[in-house]
Design a protein that fits this description.
Organism: Lithospermum erythrorhizon (Purple gromwell)
Strand order of the largest sheet: 4-10-9-8-7-5-6
Oligomer: single chain
EC number: 4.4.1.14
Low-confidence stretches: 437-473
Radius of gyration: 22 Å
Cofactor: pyridoxal 5'-phosphate
CATH class of the largest domain: Alpha Beta
Catalytic activity: S-adenosyl-L-methionine = 1-aminocyclopropane-1-carboxylate + S-methyl-5'-thioadenosine + H(+)
Mean pLDDT: 91
CATH topology of the largest domain: Aspartate Aminotransferase, domain 2
Number of helices: 20
Distance between the termini: 14 Å
GO molecular function, one term: pyridoxal phosphate binding
Number of domains: 2
Helix content: 40-55%
CATH superfamily of the largest domain: Type I PLP-dependent aspartate aminotransferase-like (Major domain)
Bound molecules: pyridoxal-5'-phosphate
Length: about 475
């Protein structure tokens, strides 16, 4: 331990969150219809498994792409040899065209401003490295993706200050919330370098309105700071309103049109992990108008390149416009069907969700199932879900939600049948809690074990890394 780096031994990575602990519990006892029908169903993983058949069908019709051939001739050597960190031009072109298509071709991207990375995880960290020094802060609206604590802070030493959003207005960002977060950071002697949003939101499953995006642009322009828009879920928008990219709104702003400084401070993060359901391929990107950022991020991309083999395969797939339009349409239709299924199922159990139009999850209101209006009670309920109901769901506290009782439930990483079983388990649980006030836990071994972890969890939930700076260093 003594010989390890401080970065490795500090705890700013957030891996002790209930979000990640839930995954670990699932791994120990995963549900399988035949082999483990009483196991835990994974509803804490934002994977999109709904349209693999379309991708596999394309692969079967285009065997050259995966077998490293062009017009029937092997290009193995070309792909196997050294690649520079700029990426394959054909792939970058195909990627920006796909990004444009998802935005209804209302935005034009320039492939020279695109930097490839090993997923959005790497893209977000790289941007943070380019924009913030250790101790500088980014403001993030809550609730936010739990992985950001690791991705944005751990290796860069940057800090996150929450922009507190709440259910009273559907968790929308307001001017007051932005100013409060800025003031809070200043009070803590942190230099604010930017705002990072996720649009569509993980975990809310909502798209940001023009009004919110305009508010954000005005805010970052007036404070002289950056705006990162993580648009990893942009292709998952399945009902109105349509997705609006920050670049689209920026282009519409006459007052900022010729303000190069502001334009250079707006950056997009994207990845194929959600829209195409390919997190294992590790394909992400940064899009920035700032040449310095593009140049630095390009150099940094050698820490997390996308393999040439993957780039070649996907450049072929994404240049097939017939495939991409069919895929985008069909995938969104399937996501909508899943959302309908889960909303209906939850409604039958008296549970409602935040109205949403995107993503691979619902933001579910279980405040009425808490024994008290506290985060302790939320973790108690989460514990029951994992060990008693057999569902790994993500408590709002793991997303730094400011109100106890909200949970994120993923619906696109399983079959219709498994989702039906999950919905039935919720129904039985709700029925049993309304008929008995004290519900015994099925597995006492797990209960006591999780109790031991509770102290850790609670500590993480309320922790901002700057509280720990001295000890972490
Ligand atoms: C908002 C957000 N950003 C980034 C990521 C990381 O994605 P990737 O697999 O592309 O690294 C996720 C994954 O869940 C996410 O939800």
């Amino acid at each position: 331990m003594k010989m390890l780096s401080k970065k490795v031994t500090c705890n700013t990575h957030g891996q002790d969150s209930s979000y990640f602990l839930g995954w670990q519990e699932y791994e120990k006892n995963p549900y399988d219809e035949i082999k483990n029908p009483n196991g835990i169903i994974q509803m804490g993983l934002a994977e999109n498994q709904l349209s693999f058949d379309l991708i596999e069908e394309w692969l079967a019709q285009n065997p050259d792409a995966a077998s490293m051939k062009r017009n029937g001739e092997s290009i193995f050597k070309e792909l196997a040899l050294f690649q520079d960190y700029h990426g394959l031009p054909a792939f970058k072109n195909a990627m920006i065209q796909f990004m444009e298509e998802i935005r209804g071709n209302r935005v034009n991207f320039d492939s020279n401003k695109l930097v490839l990375s090993a997923g959005s995880t790497s893209a977000n960290e790289t941007l943070m490295f380019c924009l913030a020094d250790p101790g500088d802060a980014f403001l993030l609206p809550t609730p936010y993706y739990p992985g950001f604590d690791r991705d944005l802070k751990w290796r860069t030493g940057a800090e996150i200050v929450p922009i507190q959003c709440n259910s009273s207005n559907g968790f929308k960002i307001t001017q007051v919330a932005l100013e409060d977060a800025y003031a809070q950071a200043t009070k803590l002697n942190l230099r604010v370098k930017g705002v990072l949003i996720t649009n569509p939101s993980n975990p809310l499953g909502t798209t940001m309105t023009h009004k919110e995006l305009n508010l954000l642009l005005s805010f970052i322009a007036s404070k002289n700071i950056h705006l990162i828009s993580d648009e990893i879920y942009s292709g998952t928008v399945f009902s109105s309103p349509n997705f609006t990219s920050i670049m689209e709104v920026l282009n519409e702003r006459n007052d900022l049109m010729n303000d190069k400084e502001v334009r250079n401070r707006v950056h997009i993060v994207y990845s194929l992990s959600k829209d195409l359901g390919l997190p294992g391929f590790r394909v992400g990107a940064i899009y920035s108008n700032d040449e310095m950022v593009v140049s630095a991020a390009t150099k940094m991309s050698s820490f997390g390149l996308v393999s040439s083999q993957t780039q070649y395969l996907l450049s072929e797939m994404l240049s097939d416009k017939k495939f991409t339009s069919k895929y985008i349409f069909e995938n969104q239709k399937r996501l909508k069907h899943r959302q309908d299924m889960i909303i209906q199922g939850l409604q039958n159990s008296g549970i409602s969700c935040l109205e949403s139009n995107a993503g691979l999850f619902c933001w579910v209101d279980m405040r009425h199932l808490l024994s008290s209006n506290t985060f302790e009670a939320e973790l108690e309920l989460w514990k029951k879900f994992v060990y008693q109901v057999g569902l790994n769901i993500s408590p709002g506290s793991s997303c730094h939600c400011s109100e106890p009782g909200w949970f994120r439930l993923c619906f696109a990483n399983m079959s219709d049948r498994t989702l039906d079983i999950a919905i039935n388990r919720i129904k039985s649980f709700v029925n049993s809690t309304t008929t008995s006030t004290t519900t015994p836990t099925k597995n006492h071994y797990h209960s006591s074990k999780i109790n031991n972890k509770r102290k850790l969890l609670t500590k993480w939930v309320f922790r901002l890394s700057f509280n720990n700076r001295e000890t972490d260093r």
